[in-house]
Batch of 4 targets.
Target 1
Amino acid sequence: MRISVIGCGYLGAVHAACMAKLGHDVVGIDVDPRKVELLEAGEAPFYEPGLPELLAEVRATGRLRFTTDMSQASAADVHFLCVGTPQVHGEFRADLTYVESAFAELSPHLKPGDVVAGKSTVPVGTAEALAARLEGTGAVLVWNPEFLREGFAVKDTLHPDRLVYGLPTDDDGEPTPVGVAAREVLDEVYATPLADRTPLVVTDYATAQLVKVAANSFLATKISFINAMAELCEATGADVTRLADAIGYDARIGRRFLNAGLGFGGGCLPKDIRAFMARAGELGVSDALSFLREVDSINMRRRVRMVDLAREVCHGSIVGRRVAVLGASFKPDSDDVRDSPALSIAAQMQLQGAHVTVTDPQGIVNARAKWPDLRFAETALEAAEDADVVLLATEWAEYRALEPDKLGEVVAHRRILDGRNVLDPRAWRAAGWTYRALGRP
Ligand code: UDX
């Protein structure tokens, strides 16, 4: 198939490379010349394990190129919309500017029979509005949400848990003839994962758009649920990690996404649940999602609690104290610092008078761009030099593997806060550290 991918951020760059890997002829289009230049040189514009190798592999086949020129989309028959939908500053709703402009720029290059596949996370109703604008062009819109996780983006795209197609439907909810034709095109695009028995859900526009935000809301709720239990554990002396193990053995609950700690961040979960609440309000059903407000509050409270814990171990004040923060990205194996709990806590402590040094294996460049006033160090040992307290904020493998005695040699005081509940309290305490964590005695 000949494919264009509009928007080459985390989603689009990975999608373009994976489509080429599946054997398609792909052009990635982005308005940012720097991004296009890097991708054309075979370099990933962000850190994503496996992506540089994949880019090198598929670019060698000649099946993948990148450009800023939208007219190059005219050679393709399938067009994936992969632009971002960030949170509007100071509001909950999603900013659809990029979706709007990408769609407007793509439209003149469409021909009859073309399939436009929306992948961006959008407020339900967006697909219907875009589809109406394609009427008379002979091109058809499908909604095909993406569920990739940063850090596993290549694997998640090549071997997804499921595929979802939202097709145009008639009054009985059945796909229209153009919908059926579009489905056949998508089946060809995803022939390899479908042959691997990837589950496929074929549905209408509204359901397809809702699937994505419903999935992210469920994941966010699961994390906030266990973090709420952590608050109870803190009040009772219970251990939230053992609690999660025990309830997680129930197959109906499951242990995944039950890791208590600093909570969720990143470019998806926080803004998606807020945009979902905003959309529910517009639809007159805000009560249905009022629990997401709690999910958001529980999540944000963890950050405040961690600063309090730092104050507690420093005998009541962090003013003038040296704090080493291990981790800046919102999760390991990513350089993404958008809504990162680690960075937000580091900045809070700095604002409250602590001397904060942040380190991260991949996220420092992005972190510095966001908070230039923080100090940054290349390694955990460097960051922890003379520290009064060390905070493990993002659970990179190298921080989980830190040796208590080795780190103990450089710090001023052996005090560690385990923001992700990944260290062994016994080992750290045995080495003379004051070990504190969220939801653990
Ligand atoms: C998420 C969804 O998982 C993905 O399906 C969707 O397409 C985009 O949003 P991502 O943002 O890459 O993906 O990260 P994810 O791995 O889901 O983690 C989100 C946040 O939750 C991270 O900050 C992580 O540290 C936190 N988290 C995750 C927890 O605090 N506890 C857990 O048990 C799991």
Target 2
Amino acid sequence: TIPPEQIIETMQQHPLLDESTEYGYGTAGFRFKVEHMDGIMLRVGIASAILQYELFQNTKTNTNTNQQPQQDMGVMITASHNDESYNGVKLSNPDGSMIPPHLEETLVAIVNQRDLDLFQNTHLKGFDFRSTAKFHVGYDTRSHSERLTSLFIKGAQAMGVTVINHGVLTTPMLHHIVLHSNAKAYLPASIPPCPSRAGYCQAMGSAYLELCNVVAPCAITGDRSTPLLVDCACGVGYKAVQEVLSEITIRGNLTTCKPFLVPCNEPGEGPLNTNCGSEHVQKQLKPPTWYSKTGQDAAKSYCCSVDGDADRIVFFAASSSNELGSLLDGDKIAVLIGKFFQAELSKAYGGNPKLPKVSMGVVQTAYANGASTQYLEKNLKVPVVITKTGVKHLHHAALEFDIGIYFEANGHGTVVFSQAYHEFASQAKSICPALEILPRLINPAVGDAVSDLLLVDALLQHFEWTVQDWATKLYTDLPSRQLKVQVKDRSVVQCNDNETKCLQPTTLQPALDQLMSDIPGSRTFCRASGTENVVRVYAEAPTREQADKMATIAAGLVH
Ligand code: 16G
Ligand code: ZN
């Protein structure tokens, strides 16, 4: 611990760039052009000790029972799918989820304190400098991430925080490491704790092999005709996929087989997230540009794209070297997982009707294609909840189910399991071993592209489906269009709780309702972005022309 005067001196050396604005903790952390991040990172480091202290104190007062031992937290330095000129920072709760609103508020207050009289800050009054706080840190491949990490560490160590620097990680690896370092509090005994990068790769590799063994043995016995090409967006995903693949190859005795996964587009091969990655594929509806260089037979293509920190994934098949045949987004992934769980559950109850009942639900946002929501509700008869955009909102809603599947259309999502589910799965194990294996392959902390691609691959092998089968055998997406509208102040548009209706300006929703009643089976909504100063417009309709026209009209209404 260093004396307060020295902390203040360090803060003076790294001031906040913009003196007049309040830096906000957006949908997914502080994220700005990199020149703003130095001052922010140092202050997040300083704040880290206080966050853990507050969380710990709150646990004590809220539960009023046994004092919980203090648990590790985490920090990830990344700007996800944004280009190299941005960086950012996200914090992780001890269970690997995003920090709650009251901690975001504390963090924003500390980071934005301009007068440097930090120790008069209410959050610091009574702060015990013999901090026992411990933070796990990881960062992405951006050229400035390592420097920003060292500023975080400087701030945190000044406050007596112990920092474990894991180096370059995917975002979901960091969250997994944090969760597993607090395993006793959050994981059932059936999941062995593995709080490290190597442990993560071993856990993923062995769970994938176990799952294939019971539901798709053909996946791991011999050469695949079509390997899965993974577009790593020139980011952290590349090394992660390589390591998990090598784990699977060695453990599964697959050294003589052709690899079933081919990581492509490694760091250095091009600018991060530029003309590649999940955001590009999902929003531009185009294959990443490197795809044309692979010389793949487009008719057989089996590909996926992850984003710059590998917490999102979409799958695609090309129709030619630079055209997309099908896009398999987060909605399609959620439905595939839901369909599999449902089949396994009915097998389990068929084998033993006395098994305890578990609930299953799917959480989506207003961006979910209407055809996916309808398929889930009508065909699979699974309840669907719609929440506000942003993983923390979906995650929270998913916890209401024993099996809570959540995905944003952009490919960010996962499955969370209740304690009751784990007990059920251990009883159902002899009939349905997959039910017990899945919580080890799925990263319950946060959306995880590497975990998702292994899961999807095992399920496609199980159903004996190609990507094209997956695209056509469930439901057909309604044509949709997204537009962004540049505005002076995005806050003029305000929505209801799940962003399906506009409340402000008051004239907007009636006009949107009129648009929708003119085209049966259509839907449109507008919301203020949580990451850019724009208003986003979404429209879907039975035909492409109608969807495009509707989006254009709706965008005109926002101006
Ligand atoms: C952030 C969110 C993502 C959301 C997106 C919406 C996390 C980890 N990421 O990237 O889930 O879809 O923001 O952006 O929560 P928007 O508010 O600009 O539309
Ligand atoms: Zn991301």
Target 3
Amino acid sequence: QGKKVLFSGMQATGNLTLGNYLGALKNWVSLSDEYECFYSVVDMHSITVRQDPATLRKRARALLTLYLAAGIDPEKNCIYYQSHVSGHAELAWILNCFTYMGELNRMTQFKDKSAKHADNINAGLFTYPVLMAADILLFQADVVPVGIDQMQHLEITRDIAQRFNNIYGEVFTVPEAYIGKVGAKIMSLQEPTKKMSKSDENPNASIYLMDDADTILRKCKRAVTDSEGAIRYREEQPGVRNLIDIYSACTGKTPEETVGEFEGKGYGVFKEAVGEAVVSVLRPLQEEVRRLEKDKTYLDEIIKNNGEKAGYFANKTLRKVQKKVGF
Ligand code: ADP
Ligand code: NA
């Protein structure tokens, strides 16, 4: 019966980069035909780090707009704010009581984040993986597309689900990592051994999805390469390799085809072509974002009805769980 369920979410912290698009969002769009997808703007996760309320609200809406602009159909899928569905918090509390301190202590992301935000090591930062488990289990998701950095969190989700099921019977679907065509991993334009990230402090390191054409061309032109002078796809040339990945992802070519196309050409010519390829991919996306932004009524309507739809599915699971634990 029906399609398999897929859950994923993104945080509305910082401006989304080309890495977020080519590595995640673009794939979300293709997956949305095959699966029943719940794509959340996970704003509850965002407040584990201090946020300016007006900025968070603005970015959350921009992110949701981007999901739509990228081509995810809100009639066939569910695009919603995590904070609009109270089941996330309610299930997270229950799951907290089925999660061990020791397990959470082993999460490497907590270690990294608490080092980075040493002035605010709050309990939410520590129990973040439990909220993530609740996000996934609430919709009985079969699959979750995750990057390597989130693999540990999916593992703990599976452990919590199995633990709960062992006690109470088959309540939760135990989710699998989505394996299949993974998106390109895009690296920083300035330090190509580091991934491109919306939290990078150097604005030249990332192409932001709403950057204008001149900015994109300039950033590509200034991308760090090497002194080899040859366009080859190999680890020893991480900057060039990254530009090949970007160009290939934007044009649908393989890295080998890209290398062939630019054989014997200089870095200047190649960088310009990369910039133009990025512009051609982002321009229609940006136009669609602008069009949607103007249609406030439509956006509000999607936010409302998709939030209700998510709430409906969430409540089904939540009621089952509540009954099991004795509420
Ligand atoms: P960021 O590091 O930009 O804050 P997140 O960790 O919030 O990104 O990730 C959001 C989604 O985007 C995840 O699915 C992640 O795998 C993907 N993603 C983030 N950066 C990149 C990148 N540089 N290349 C490919 N995918 C990326
Ligand atoms: Na779908």
Target 4
Amino acid sequence: PEVVDQIAAGEVVERPAHLVKELVENSIDAKATRVHVEFFDGGRIVKVIDNGKGMSPEDLPKSLERFATSKISKTDDLWKLKTFGFRGEALASIASVSKITLTSRREGDEQAHQLVSEYGKKSEIDKVGGSQGTTILMENLFENTPARLKFLKSDAAENTAIKTTLKAMALSHFDVEFRIQENGKLVNFWPACKSRKDRVEQILEIKPMYEGEAVRENVKAYAVFADPHNVAKTARNIWMFAQNRWIQDRSLQAAVNEAYRSLLMHGEYPIAAVWVEVDPDCVDVNIHPTKSQVKFQNPSLAFRAVAGALRSTLEQAPW
Ligand code: ADP
Ligand code: MG
């Protein structure tokens, strides 16, 4: 494989969880309503099965080429635009450091087609059986780049990172069914839901949860959160999304804590999921495709919107 692809792979797939995110994003981009993810050995083997629109046999090899995105027209998606350098790179990057078996069938096609790629070297295309959608099996991750293999953490740690990423993706796509298997064992089955609130209750396994909204100038916040008796021991149960993308943000996390301040004891953390929507011009969505951090033009507006979304409900409720 081209060195340039392997370098890109270092950016896009530092860890198995990142490549799982890329594969599942592709399934969602392909309008899948069901996504099944199986992973083994800390994510060195990953299989993603979707029922999305599929690819034509001609598109199979193309999808593994660098910059072979079929999404170039989606200029309205600012997040994608800002990470432009990484568009059409994910599959090429993953293909350069693994063995990939790509099987896909479009609606109306009589059969599925399959392509195998070993570290970027592609096979002929075969006709095979298979239902509508795309299945990507990735194996032998990093076996051609042993240095990178050494950077992987324990299987347990990589598995946890994968499951956390999938949880975030399921939270942000409530209308998609997720089925997740770890080392052959079903660990999560989340059927599609009708609303974000239902999804949060389903995934965080607390019911009922509460919701609230607030707007501060051009920042809109929506939150789903547990009552103050349902608490966590860490801040890891505060999930944050900007433009429906999972982000990490200390300031917004602080806003959630602030809203609960008088309701929680020392060492207790809220359980909440928060969505922030802001004018595309007022947020810098990324510096790096895997880091999930944003820079709000006016962070204090975002802080106040989030705190407000929780407070409006928290202050009325009879805890
Ligand atoms: P990008 O998503 O930025 O376009 P990728 O490297 O992730 O780049 O994917 C390359 C292309 O392969 C996509 O643009 C899409 O056309 C095709 N593709 C990848 N995964 C799927 C999938 N699950 N279903 C349908 N098409 C897919
Ligand atoms: Mg992609």
